[in-house]
């Protein structure tokens, strides 16, 4: 594969791997493939801009492949040469190829942080190393993504360590397994500074979908050293935009409910004759899951509650709520909107159903999502008749008990 072909592939992957919304999703064939790709490569750069960059892109920020020294402090702006040179300077001795770097505004919109990517070989096999930057809410001040370990119920995980540093910054080191013999392992370090800077470094035990070694080339400590290095300070001196989380009206931020609270409500809403069973540790606020047996069948149920989800948005989501669902949207007398759905083994709706679900938007803006599948985790599903029908799932999601 030529260098240009590899570069184009990186951009296509970037466009394809924009991260989905957090929390438990209804399990289906497309969902499982999406999670598998994220677990394999788990390196979302930016979607739309990268796709557009494939057509007529002038690579003004492509790195000089001959230099190993950091590019030094930039003058007018952060350049791709600075990004790639700095990344190279922070790696241990080894062979570096396929270097790419893009500064502020060179590949993505100026509101998105600069990025770098390369292939590193320490003598025991090649592995891709990718770095992205961004600005988010400082830790502890909002819904800052990637400042906590993933819930192993939702995401296959080898291990994860979360460290709150003395200055208030948060470091998360997560290791994701391969999902089959041809899949790559993915180790991810995410550093979120007290000022809202975020640096994420991904590495893989292979390059371009080819497994070349048992583990990724950098140790977890080496990966963390790259992410937390002060060499990235100049990036955030120039990349100073305010974080742009999902809009919320002043004073309306609500802490997601605890799993125990959600489980208590969910048990009371099960239909007569349905028997709940424990389903392991519950780790993520705003979500819960349990096993339920009804009519001789046992399925896994998940519930996600987003309090005041509709408040503070710049438009009223009720006008288009459920527009992408194949099943009709039902409006209750109290104004609650709800719909059901069914996911099959393929995106085209072919093959057996693998999951069932219902979603409701309540008058106070609370959104409730209920999912059901036959499996023991949030990313495994098997064909078979579910314990509860979709209409029963709708009744659970639309019940006023979820409102706060």
Order of helices and strands: HHHHEEEEEEEEEHHHEEEEEEEH
Biggest sheet layout: 7 strands, antiparallel
Rg value: 23 Å
- State which percent range the strand residues make up: 25-35%
* Separate helix tally: 8
- What is the spatial order of strands in the main beta sheet? 1-2-3-7-6-5-4
- First CA to last CA: what distance? 56 Å
Class by alpha and beta content:
alpha+beta
Plain-language structure description:
The chain has helices at 3-16, 29-40, 48-53, 80-89, 220-228, 233-238, 259-269, 390-397; strands at residues 95-102, 115-121, 126-135, 159-164, 170-176, 186-192, 197-204, 206-207, 210-211, 275-277, 287-294, 297-306, 330-331, 337-344, 353-361, 367-373. By secondary structure, the chain is α+β, with helices and mostly antiparallel strands. It is globular. The chain has a seven-stranded antiparallel beta sheet, with helices on both faces. Residues 135-161, 311-330, 341-366 are annotated as: Disordered.
Provide a concise account of the structure shown.
This protein has 8 helices and 16 strands. The chain is of the alpha+beta class and 404 residues long. The protein is globular and about 65 Å long.
Give structural attributes.
single chain, 404 residues, 7-stranded antiparallel β-sheet, transmembrane helix, 19% helix, 8 helices, alpha+beta
């Amino acid at each position: 594969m030529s260098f240009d072909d590899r570069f184009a592939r990186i951009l296509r992957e970037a466009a394809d791997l924009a991260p989905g919304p957090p929390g438990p999703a209804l399990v289906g064939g497309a969902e499982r493939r999406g999670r598998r790709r994220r677990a394999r490569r788990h390196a979302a750069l930016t979607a739309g801009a990268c796709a557009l960059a494939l057509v007529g892109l002038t690579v003004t920020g492509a790195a000089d492949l001959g230099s190993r020294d950091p590019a030094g402090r930039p003058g007018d702006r952060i350049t791709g040469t600075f990004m790639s040179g700095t990344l190279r300077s922070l790696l241990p001795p080894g062979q570096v190829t396929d270097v790419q770097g893009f500064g502020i505004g060179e590949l993505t919109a100026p509101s998105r942080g600069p990025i770098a990517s390369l292939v590193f070989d320490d003598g025991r096999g090649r592995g891709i190393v990718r770095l992205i930057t961004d600005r988010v809410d400082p830790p502890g001040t909002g819904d800052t993504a990637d400042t906590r370990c993933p819930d192993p119920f939702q995401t296959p995980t080898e291990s994860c360590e979360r460290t709150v540093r003395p200055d208030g910054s948060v470091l998360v080191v997560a290791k994701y397994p391969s999902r089959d013999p041809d899949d790559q392992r993915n180790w991810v370090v995410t550093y979120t500074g007290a000022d809202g800077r975020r640096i994420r470094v991904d590495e893989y035990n292979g390059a371009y979908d080819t497994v070349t070694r048992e583990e990724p080339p950098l140790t977890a400590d080496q990966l963390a050293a790259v992410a937390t290095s002060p060499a990235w300070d100049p990036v955030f001196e120039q990349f100073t935009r305010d974080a742009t989380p999902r809009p919320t009206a002043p004073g309306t931020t609500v802490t997601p409910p605890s799993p125990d609270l959600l489980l208590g409500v969910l048990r009371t809403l099960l239909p007569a004759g349905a028997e709940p069973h424990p389903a392991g540790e519950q780790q993520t606020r705003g979500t819960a899951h349990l096993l339920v047996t009804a009519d001789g069948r046992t399925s896994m149920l998940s519930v996600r509650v987003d309090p005041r989800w509709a408040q503070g948005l710049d438009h009223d989501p009720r006008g288009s709520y459920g527009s992408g669902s194949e099943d009709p949207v039902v409006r209750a007398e109290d104004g609650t909107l709800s719909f059901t759905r069914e996911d099959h083994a393929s995106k085209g709706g072919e093959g057996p159903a693998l999951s069932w679900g219902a979603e409701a938007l309540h008058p106070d803006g609370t959104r409730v999502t209920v999912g059901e599948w036959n499996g023991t985790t949030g990313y495994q599903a098997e064909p078979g008749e579910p314990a509860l029908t979709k209409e029963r799932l709708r009744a659970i999601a639309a019940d006023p008990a979820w409102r706060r």
